[in-house]
Input
Amino acid sequence: MPTFGGGDSYSAASMSDRMRGTRDSPASNGHATNITVKLGSWDNGESIMCLLYDNSDNSLVGQTEERSEGHASTQWAVFEFDPPVEISKTVEYNIILWCEGPTLFYYGSSVGDWYLSADETFDSSPPDPKSFSASTGWIVSIYCTYTEGGGSSTPSQKLIGTGEMSTVGQGNMSFVNI
Output
């Protein structure tokens, strides 16, 4: 599946009650399924989630699951969107890691890439909207994975009437394409 964001990683820094991330756009329209971030040690019981913001107006587009299981070694951690979030290739997104307690995150240097930061106490309800301090030359090791395409090419059907349905499938129901 395609991704956007990214970044090399050669160094780690600790953060607590902060947001860190990078800015990028997907190559095509689609649905974001998860955000992956390279983390070092992370204490059990300390919550982490990832967020996707529209950079043009700082609005929250989606938030991943919140996790708090912690781990002691460096790994790529995957945070799922449920349901997936619709994204557009014409939008620049802020891909953000938000943590409660002491957490090591990884970053690298890359000319022209964005490093985003904000102090924000973790409380499970992401701020909307949220602005970030931005600088170039550093990039957080975080990326968003998505499926390409703007959705189903066949229309959905929605029940718009009431009625009774027997076990053999008889009854009066109305459907309309949406």
About this structure: The chain has a mean pLDDT of 82. The chain has one domain: 3-177. The CA atoms of residues 20 and 36 lie 13 Å apart.
